[in-house]
């Protein structure tokens, strides 16, 4: 079983093995993410059954760079609970290989004692926000890539680089990964605003009167980039039936609540199929207008967009 460092992994292993005594989950966190398994597939050396933590952009990367079949099409009638999935969470995969298990929204997290929330992406170019924003490298960070895609959705493939040039002129700081940018820079109060998750307050709202001054959420244009995480069964797996049982378990009400709590992300199932803590409902914020590219939007375009961006901005 492959996961992208998922905090819910330990609980899922224990709970699933308890319900399915014949099963044994062994998690692997690939150093190079999905690229590890693209290379292994080229050598007919895939040694896993399920990939857990697959994003739409990673699925597109698989199909753009690998001619074979890395993941198999799902037998949805074999997976209990697929009817519970939110209608708005879809990978748009023409081969139906992925089921979402949670989602997050990329937003701006800011310090309300220093600045007011920007009302639009254009506002980030104002002098009021000069030298205030931290974001991440779109080549190596999921939030960084989501923010890049958000700007492409807003300004188009012909206009996003010009926006980033203006953002650079206004002093945006681009760091390599989310952990480095959040804990190494934002948490140290080096800057008052960062590209991060809209569930930020859930993580920090501890105690009776939590101080959320530096954990305010901004949705420019009432938008945030939707970034669902999914699970897929490897094409060469000889445990496809057990993998389908695992997917059904992940979509159960109990598992969805645990994943939301442990991953600090939104469930993939509709609200009436999961019961969340009151604090989650209070502090987890979702944008009124989620932004997301579909599989078809990204296919054949994603690598070029990232490469063009990286050529100018990855070393900032």
Overview of this protein structure:
The chain is α/β, with parallel strands linked by helices and 316 residues long. The protein has 2 domains: 2-103 and 227-291, D-Maltodextrin-Binding Protein, domain 2 (3-Layer(aba) Sandwich); 105-225 and 294-313, D-Maltodextrin-Binding Protein, domain 2. It contains 12 helices and 10 strands. The longest helix is centred in the middle third of the chain and has 14 residues, at 142-155. It is globular, with a radius of gyration of 20 Å.
What is the strand content? 15-25%
Mind telling me the C-alpha Rg?
20 Å
Oligomeric form of this entry? Answer: single chain
CATH class placement of the largest domain: Alpha Beta
The span between the termini is: 36 Å
Low-confidence runs: none
The secondary structure category is: alpha/beta
Keywords: Signal
GO molecular function, one term: thiamine binding
Pfam families: SBP_bac_6
Protein name: Periplasmic protein
Keywords:
16% strand, 12 helices, D-Maltodextrin-Binding Protein, domain 2, 2 domains, 316 residues, 10 strands, alpha/beta, single chain
Brief overview, please?
This protein is an alpha/beta fold. 35% of the residues lie in helices and 16% in strands.
List the helices and strands and how they pair.
Blueprint: E1 2-3, H1 9-19, H2 34-42, E2 50-54, H3 56-65, E3 99-110, E4 133-136, H4 142-155, H5 160-169, E5 173-175, H6 178-186, E6 193-197, H7 200-204, E7 216-218, E8 223-233, H8 240-250, H9 253-263, E9 266-267, H10 278-283, E10 289-291, H11 295-298, H12 302-313
Parallel strand pairs: 1-2, 4-5, 4-6, 8-10
Antiparallel strand pairs: 2-8, 3-6, 3-7, 3-8, 3-9
């Amino acid at each position: 079983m492959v996961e992208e460092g998922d905090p819910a992994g330990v609980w899922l292993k224990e709970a699933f093995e308890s319900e399915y005594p014949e099963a044994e989950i062994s998690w692997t966190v690939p150093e190079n993410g999905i690229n590890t398994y693209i290379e292994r597939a080229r050598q007919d050396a895939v040694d896993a059954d399920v990939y857990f933590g697959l994003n739409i952009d990673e699925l597109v990367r698989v199909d753009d760079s690998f001619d074979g079949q890395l993941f198999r099409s799902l037998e949805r009638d074999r997976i209990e609970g697929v009817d519970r999935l939110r209608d708005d969470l879809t990978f748009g995969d023409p081969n139906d290989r992925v089921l979402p298990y949670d989602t997050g929204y990329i937003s701006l997290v800011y310090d309300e004692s220093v600045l007011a929330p920007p009302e639009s992406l254009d506002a980030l170019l104002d002098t009021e926000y000069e030298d205030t924003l931290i974001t991440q490298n779109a080549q190596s960070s999921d939030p960084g890539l989501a923010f890049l895609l958000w700007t492409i959705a807003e300004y188009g493939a012909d206009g996003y680089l010009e926006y980033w040039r203006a953002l650079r002129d206004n002093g945006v700081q681009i760091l390599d990964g989310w952990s480095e940018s959040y804990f190494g820079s934002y948490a140290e109060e080096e800057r008052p605003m960062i590209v991060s998750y809209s569930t930020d307050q859930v993580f920090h709202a501890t105690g009776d009167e939590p101080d959320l001054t530096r954990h305010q959420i901004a949705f420019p244009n009432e938008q945030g980039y939707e970034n669902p995480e999914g699970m897929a069964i490897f094409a060469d797996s000889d445990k496809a039936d057990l993998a389908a049982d695992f997917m059904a378990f992940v979509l159960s009400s109990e598992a969805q609540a645990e994943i939301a709590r442990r991953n600090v992300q939104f469930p993939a199932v509709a609200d009436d199929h999961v019961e969340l803590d009151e604090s989650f409902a209070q502090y987890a914020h979702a944008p009124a207008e989620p932004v997301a590219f579909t599989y078809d939007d990204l296919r054949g375009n994603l690598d070029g967009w990232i490469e063009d961006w990286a050529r100018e901005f990855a070393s900032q």
